[in-house]
Amino acid sequence: MACTTILVGKKASYDGSTMIARNDDSGSGHFTPKKFVVVQKEEQPRSYKSEISHVEIELPDDPMRYTAVPNAVKGEGIWAASGVNEAHVAMTATETITSNPRVLGADPLVVYQPAEDGKEEIPGGIGEEDIVSIVLPYIHSAREGVRRLGNLLEKYGTYEMNGIAFQDQDEIWWLETIGGHHWIAKKVPDDVYVVMSNQLGIDAFDLADALNGQQAHMCSADLREFIESNHLDLSLDGKLNPRDTFGSHDDADHVYNTPRAWFMLRYLNPHTRVWDGLNAEYTPRSDDLPWCMVPERKVTVEDVKYMLSSHYQGTSYDPYAAYGDKSMRGAYRSIGINRNDFLAVIQMRPDKERDCHTIEWLAFASNAFNVLVPFYADVDETPEYLSNTTGEVSTGNFYWASRLIAAMADASYQKSVFHVERYEEHVMSKGHELINRYDALLEKETDAAKRMQLKTEANEKIADMLKEAAGDTLDKVLFELSSQMKNSYSRSDA
């Protein structure tokens, strides 16, 4: 899937939280309805079979409960996408990334081959459909998540190139697949943020650390031999740059991928580098954009939402711009597009008790016109307004209400944009307010059952507030769009 990812280390965030965030986008030509659910231990399969690749995997007998954002319509697999488990470990999967023919020729992708012409079916490897479901219920730290997924990749292979983030309260790790069976992973430094936009992103890698101490790097056990035997290292100074070794720099990347990373880096580090003009150090087409940077100020949840909703505001590339040079509008693929299915921001707060320190922020549909809403993640159930999505269009759930608001607000942008802005500010403000209120109640409560009840109650109140606000905004943007109908007439009928 075409996605965009932001990772924020604990010393780079406003409150000491680790944060991982990702837009999940549908492929061109369709939307994928999503829902927010809790997967109980008894619901987790012991024998897993992929819909796409038909690979079969025996799973451990001791899964943990976890949240997930799966497809709402059956038929293409689970696609659990993002979530948090009982051990307070989170992951988001996946960011589709790119490679080059040398890598794919040395370690081909493991692609499903159906039974035909008298030949037996050959299962493929694992992919985005599967990864959260076969990893998240079984890991107790971000590092353990890297190791489990790495072992699965080596055993079963993969049919696509992907990037995956793992998170606990102390660490964030980013794993990138390489060809069919190989992988690398790097710990996100505490004082930086990372941006990813559908390209292999890691731009520096300590292979010696990965193969020995594993302080901040991990990889396939045979990666050194794989690189050397296939002449993959392109460096002149001996410093391994995975982006050059394993990635791609196609012309299409300069339109579809790198501009998104450029905008996010430019937003959080406006004065650190020169981003615009004839003397720009980095442009939307630069192949050497940093994988991570120390921000000029601490990063908030609101910053993450703004960046992952971007349509290049403040630049000549904004398709909604009402002034300036029109020739470059829409030149680059926006981050907030019509095909956004959901955004999840997982925030692990260091100053809260373990059972309430993780907040899962969610938005559905096009991020340029939606709202981000907080929920306690350590719960047994999610509110119906977010869990009852089906394939049928309905205002009775958050996904389709968000999709409808986006379509109508886009078509009446100049009249509707301020309704969307007020909607977002209201929901995020009330969301913070309700989380603060229930945090205070949870500080006073010691009984485990009552603490669970309080978290569930908080989530329901947030969902009720959200439903009311979404309905009100839907009413307003519907009116604005209806007022622009071609058969409108303003003369009084008196």
Sequence-ordered SSE layout with sheet pairings:
Layout: E1 4-8, E2 18-25, E3 37-39, E4 47-49, E5 56-58, E6 66-68, E7 82-84, E8 90-96, H1 101-106, H2 131-135, H3 142-156, E9 162-167, E10 172-178, E11 182-187, E12 193-196, H4 207-211, E13 217-219, H5 223-229, H6 242-246, H7 253-256, H8 258-268, E14 292-293, H9 301-308, E15 340-348, E16 358-364, E17 373-376, H10 384-387, H11 398-411, H12 413-444, H13 448-482
Antiparallel strand pairs: 1-2, 1-12, 2-15, 3-6, 4-5, 7-8, 8-9, 9-10, 10-11, 11-13, 12-14, 15-16, 16-17
Helix pairs in contact: 11-12, 11-13, 12-13
Residue stretches low in confidence (pLDDT < 50, at least 5 long) are none
Individual helix count? 13
Query: What would the principal axes of the Cα set say about the shape?
Result: globular
- Largest sheet report: 7 strands, antiparallel
Helix content: 25-40%
Mean pLDDT metric: 96
Count of domains: 2
Output the radius of gyration.
23 Å
Query: Proportion of β residues?
Result: 15-25%
Q: Can you walk me through this structure?
A:
The chain is an alpha+beta fold and 494 residues long. It has 2 domains: 4-348; 384-489, no CATH class. It has helices at 101-106, 131-135, 142-156, 207-211, 223-229, 242-246, 253-256, 258-268, 301-308, 384-387, 398-411, 413-444, 448-482; strands at residues 4-8, 18-25, 37-39, 47-49, 56-58, 66-68, 82-84, 90-96, 162-167, 172-178, 182-187, 193-196, 217-219, 292-293, 340-348, 358-364, 373-376. The longest helix has 35 residues, at 448-482. The chain is globular. The N and C termini lie far apart (56 Å). The mean pLDDT is 96.
